[in-house]
């Protein structure tokens, strides 16, 4: 167990996967080394549930937004709802929003439209953004650049070290989670190697992306210890330093 507490900047405890033991699990977080958690919305309903969790637990904060998978169903009413949500207690970011071209049936136009609109909401609400980008590196980068938003994190970063450097130059943080522990994580290892620790955030994406040795199982924030150990070994740093610096990064970005 580490002395310092870890910040999980990206989790989805509202999801069904936690229905059986959500409260028990969340109540154990502190004694298992987790300091704070941001519960991230992916549509209106999960955004509202994130706000509820933040109300219930003092160490949980909320992000609200509509994920690219739901973009084609998003309406003006949803947008107004998000505007309202931004003003709610303990909402600290807009997300997760972005582009995802992984599946063939994606509606790229709807995704781009609502991504741009939600980025404008970040500016209006003066909040950082949590970006989801999959198989859409160039469009994501171009849209963010054009939007003028300069505060946020690229969640589950999967691009090159060069792209990470571009984002850092623009003012963004790089989100690193369980994937960095995978055997085939060469590209992400290089990103971690070359990105200053002061620009890295720790995250799980629970219940997804469990690190080795729990790959494929349900993830939870406590598994971040494997992630900070891996970051420490890549950067040849004490894991305690990794934990305290990344915690401070999250504090700077979200509070
Ligand atoms: Ni997520």
Proper CATH architecture: Alpha-Beta Barrel
Mean model confidence by pLDDT: 97
Low-confidence stretches: none
CATH class group: Alpha Beta
The class by helix and strand makeup works out as: alpha/beta
**Distance from first to last alpha carbon:** 26 Å
Bound molecules: nickel (II) ion
Oligomeric organization of the protein chains: single chain
Highlighted features:
255 residues; alpha/beta; TIM Barrel; eight-stranded parallel beta sheet; 9 helices; 42% helix; globular; binds nickel (II) ion
Description:
It is built from 9 helices and 8 strands. With 255 residues, it is an alpha/beta fold. The protein has a single domain (6-254), classed as Metal-dependent hydrolases (TIM Barrel, Alpha-Beta Barrel). Strand 6 (152-154), helix 6 and strand 7 (172-176) form a beta-alpha-beta unit. It is globular. The mean pLDDT is 97. It binds nickel (II) ion. Nickel (II) ion binds at residues 10, 12, 40, 96, 205. Nickel (II) ion binds next to loops.
List the SSEs and their pairings.
Elements: E1 6-11, H1 22-27, E2 34-40, H2 44-56, E3 60-64, H3 76-86, E4 91-100, H4 108-125, E5 129-134, H5 137-147, E6 152-154, H6 161-170, E7 172-176, H7 186-194, E8 200-202, H8 224-235, H9 239-254
Parallel strand pairs: 1-2, 2-3, 3-4, 4-5, 5-6, 6-7, 7-8
Helix pairs in contact: 2-3, 4-5, 6-7, 8-9
Task: Compose a concise summary of this entry.
This protein is of the alpha/beta class and 255 residues long.
């Amino acid at each position: 167990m580490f002395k310092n507490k870890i910040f999980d900047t990206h989790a989805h405890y509202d999801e069904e996967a936690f229905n059986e033991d959500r409260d028990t699990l969340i109540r154990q977080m502190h004694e298992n080394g987790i300091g704070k958690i941001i519960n991230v919305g992916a549509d209106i309903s999960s955004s509202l549930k994130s706000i509820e969790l933040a109300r219930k637990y003092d160490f949980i904060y909320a992000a609200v937004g509509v994920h690219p998978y739901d973009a084609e169903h998003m309406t003006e009413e949803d947008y107004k709802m998000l505007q309202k949500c931004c003003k709610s207690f303990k909402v600290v970011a807009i997300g997760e929003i972005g582009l995802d071209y992984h599946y063939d049936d994606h509606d790229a136009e709807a995704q781009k439209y609502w991504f741009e609109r939600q980025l404008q909401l970040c500016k209006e609400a003066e909040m950082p953004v949590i970006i989801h980008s999959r198989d859409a590196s160039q469009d994501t980068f171009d849209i963010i650049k054009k939007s003028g938003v300069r505060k946020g994190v690229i969640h589950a970063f999967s691009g090159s070290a060069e792209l990470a450097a571009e984002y850092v130059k623009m003012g963004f943080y790089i989100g690193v989670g369980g994937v960095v522990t995978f055997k085939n994580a060469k590209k992400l290892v290089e990103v971690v190697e070359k990105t200053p620790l002061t620009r890295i955030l720790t995250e799980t994406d629970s219940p997804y992306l469990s690190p080795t040795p729990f790959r494929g199982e349900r993830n939870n924030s406590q598994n971040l210890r494997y992630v900070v150990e891996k970051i420490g070994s890549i950067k040849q740093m004490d894991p305690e330093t990794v934990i305290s610096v990344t915690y401070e990064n999250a504090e700077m970005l979200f509070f």
